[in-house]
Amino acid sequence: MKQLICCIALLIATQGFSQPDKSKRPSPPALVKQTLASGATVSIDYSQPSVKGRTIGVDLEPMPAKVWRTGANEATVFETDKDVKVEGKLLPAGKYALFSIVDGETWTFIFNKTWKQWGAFGYKDAEDALRIQVAGTKAVDFSEQLNFQISEVGLVTLNWGDRQVSFRVE
Asked: Which residues contact 3 (CB under 8 A, 6 or more apart)?
């Protein structure tokens, strides 16, 4: 009987320390992965915030000229298994936190070496591996949840709300 009680107590205790189901979060996890024509495999692991009637840049990130985790919850992780060029600039193989700064229609994407962090709270620009700037556009269709797409030719596209922005990976 003592063994049964000990087993039940141990089971209850370990359940209290188990990881919560991330798919039940208000901003659920998502992963997009693509092998490019060059042979490099690129993935983006992120959480999908929803607009929920709010105004992006006013009630909801990204806020103008502020570093954003380019998603929700943990920092968005951009990973490549081979060296690639992002908008013509070299990015060595590895994992990076993908941050962004929006200034009007100009988006600065930041590939930061400290990929495992919560949000942008631990962001340090000294850890930046690469920064690129691209122009955003108005999306054709409204996207309630943030989503990324990666095409076989290496076009990475972010859609959220009425915003769309893309950059090339080769």
From this structure: none
